[in-house]
């Protein structure tokens, strides 16, 4: 499935209406593979209308919109709570109750969902994976190695300094996996691991040039899934 950002302007229109064109927002993309680097970019709402900026957003984008105004503090309540309370308790007093707070977490899920959300959850059981959907797959050794890279900072640092030396110590990798991992970047790993159901069933093999030229964005939809935190 192929998507585009043709509805992006609707989001920008709303942000501009509520926050103005000069309000600062933060675009964040968290890394999926250890070889990748997380991305944090700052734009103004007005910048989001620029085509070159919109190209930065894709299916793994998160957009943080900081509060426009600080909530007012009740002087009377602050006085009652005292010097220490002014910094913590008074803020908590004005904060909306959290559906997922510790005292609510053991309640039934229906407690936290409204009618619309409950309907969506109910429909999940009938969800059909779209044709062409890609999932990350690899040999057990490949999965274990990538997990180790993600959980062991020293190993990751060593790998970044000399990928080939680290990969040569790993048993069980296929020759293609060794080749891709020794390149030390995320693109070849995506090329090796991102496969459709058809790719898996047919045993599709990649050439070395396909592996070396792999790009993460080739396996992502271009639609924006933006997590927006807005406080008016």
Topology, element by element:
Blueprint: H1 8-19, E1 24-29, E2 39-44, H2 51-54, E3 62-64, H3 75-87, H4 89-94, H5 115-123, E4 135-136, H6 140-151, H7 153-161, H8 163-167, H9 175-182, H10 186-193, E5 194-195, H11 197-202, H12 208-212
Antiparallel strand pairs: 1-2, 1-3, 4-5
Helix pairs in contact: 6-7
Q: Using only CA atoms, what is the Rg? A: 23 Å
> What helical percentage do the residues reach?
40-55%
Specify the biggest β-sheet.
3 strands, antiparallel
The number of distinct helices, counting runs of at least 4 residues, comes to: 12
N- to C-terminal distance:
36 Å
What class do helices, strands and sheet pairing give?
A: mainly alpha
Unreliable sequence segments: 98-110, 218-232
The portion of residues forming beta strands comes to: 5-15%
Adjacency order of strands in the biggest sheet: 2-1-3
Explain what this protein looks like in three dimensions.
The protein has 232 residues and is mostly helical. Among the domains are: 52 residues, no CATH class; 85 residues, no CATH class. The chain has twelve helices and five strands. The chain has a three-stranded antiparallel sheet, with no helix packed on it. A two-stranded antiparallel ribbon has the order 4-5. Helix 6 packs across helix 7. It is extended. The C terminus is likely disordered.
């Amino acid at each position: 499935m192929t998507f585009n950002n043709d509805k992006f302007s609707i989001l920008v229109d709303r942000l501009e209406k509520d926050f103005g064109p000069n309000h600062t927002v933060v675009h964040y993309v968290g890394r999926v593979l250890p070889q990748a680097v997380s991305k944090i970019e700052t734009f103004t709402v007005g910048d989001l209308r620029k085509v070159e900026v919109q190209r930065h957003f894709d299916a793994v984008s998160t957009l943080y919109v900081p509060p426009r105004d600080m909530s007012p503090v009740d002087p009377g309540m602050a006085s009652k709570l005292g010097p220490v309370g002014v910094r913590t308790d008074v803020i908590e007093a004005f904060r909306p109750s959290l559906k997922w707070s510790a005292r609510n977490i053991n309640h039934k899920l229906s407690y936290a969902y409204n009618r619309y959300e409950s309907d969506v959850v109910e429909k999940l059981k009938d969800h059909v994976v779209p044709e062409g959907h890609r999932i990350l797959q690899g040999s057990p050794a490949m999965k274990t190695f990538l997990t180790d890279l993600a959980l062991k900072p020293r190993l990751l640092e060593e790998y970044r300094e000399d990928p080939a030396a680290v990969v040569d110590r790993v048993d069980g990798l296929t020759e293609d996996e060794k080749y891709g991992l020794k390149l030390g970047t995320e693109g070849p790993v995506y090329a090796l691991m991102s496969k459709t159901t058809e790719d898996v069933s047919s045993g599709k093999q990649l050439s070395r040039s396909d592996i070396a030229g792999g790009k993460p964005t080739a396996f992502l939809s271009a639609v924006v899934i933006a997590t927006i935190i807005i406080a008016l």
